[in-house]
Design a protein that fits this description.
Layout (H helix, E strand, L loop, with lengths): L6 E10 L10 E11 L4 E6 L5 H8 L7 E6 L2 E2 L5 H11 E5 L10 H11 L7 H13 L15 H18 L7 E5 L7 H18 L2 E5 L3 H4 L4 E6 L2 E7 H12 L1
Parallel strand pairs: 3-8, 3-9, 6-7, 7-8
Antiparallel strand pairs: 1-2, 1-4, 4-5, 9-10
Helix pairs in contact: 3-5, 4-5, 5-6
């Protein structure tokens, strides 16, 4: 039996209503996008501002409903779930990292990582949870920063805390399927050195733990770490390339 894709978006459209009676002010952000992402793939989504890349990521992650079309993660069609069921599904199966780190300033790094778990009704302090916390902090080189508040962390460290928060459920449940991580411009607020650290970390997590990565970026240097690069233009897929094909095309443009 062929393994089911980790993520499948079929014929996705998204129309933002502008309020005019005749629809003249409506904006079509996505126009029939179909995208399949297998387990363990690192996918970069590129495109100019307004191309629909962030809208596609938000729909694929279950943060926004499509106007039409379906989204399936593993065997679950998330586009048909109600709000509560979708929230519960995301909490267990999906991690999302944003350009703005979205850390709670009054919580330590460790407390920020635990926040989604505790919000789901689970209690902290168990042996299993402590072991998972030590493992993920060690893996992301944050062990010595676990008691620090966000304002005492560098930008790169704050982004790593955000990644740890998004992936903690997977480290906690070793028998679960590989995590699906969405990241929207994860290096947008970082300098080049920290950007490379984050990209290398995502690449290693993809290779070592078979995480599936879907990363929106406008930076070719980020896309080069991916296995595959999708380029959107005006709400449609313009190119679907391997990273090597993308690098060759980008080099030709710069020549």
């Amino acid at each position: 039996m062929t393994e089911i894709s980790h993520l499948l978006c079929e014929n996705i459209t998204k129309i933002y209503r502008g309020g005019s009676l005749d629809g003249s002010a409506d904006v079509s952000a996505l126009k029939g996008v179909t995208l399949e992402v297998p387990h363990g793939q690192f996918l970069a989504i590129m495109g100019a501002s307004g191309s629909g890349k962030s809208t596609l990521l938000h729909i694929a992650a279950g943060l926004t409903k499509p106007t039409s079309g379906t989204v399936r993660i593993n065997e679950t069609q998330i586009s048909s779930l109600g709000d509560r069921a979708l929230t519960l599904f995301r909490r267990e199966n999906v991690g999302v990292v944003f350009q703005a780190f979205n850390l709670i300033p009054t919580l330590t790094a460790e407390e920020n990582i635990l926040l989604p778990i505790l919000a789901g009704g689970k209690s902290g302090g168990t042996e299993k949870m402590n072991a998972a916390m030590t493992q993920i902090l060690t893996r992301l080189n944050l062990l010595e920063r676990r008691r620090h508040y966000p304002d005492a962390l560098s930008g790169g460290e704050q982004q790593r805390v955000a990644i740890a928060r998004a992936l903690f459920t997977d480290f906690l449940n070793e028998d679960s399927k590989a995590s699906l991580l969405f990241a929207d411009e994860p290096t947008g607020n970082l300098d080049s050195a920290n950007s490379e650290v984050i990209c290398r970390l995502l690449r290693e997590l993809c290779d070592e733990r078979k995480h599936t990565m879907v990363v929106v970026t406008h930076e070719p240097s980020v896309a080069h770490w991916a296995d595959r690069v999708i380029t959107l233009q005006d709400g449609k897929i313009l190119h679907d390339q391997t990273a090597a094909e993308f690098a060759a095309q980008n080099s030709a443009k710069e020549a």
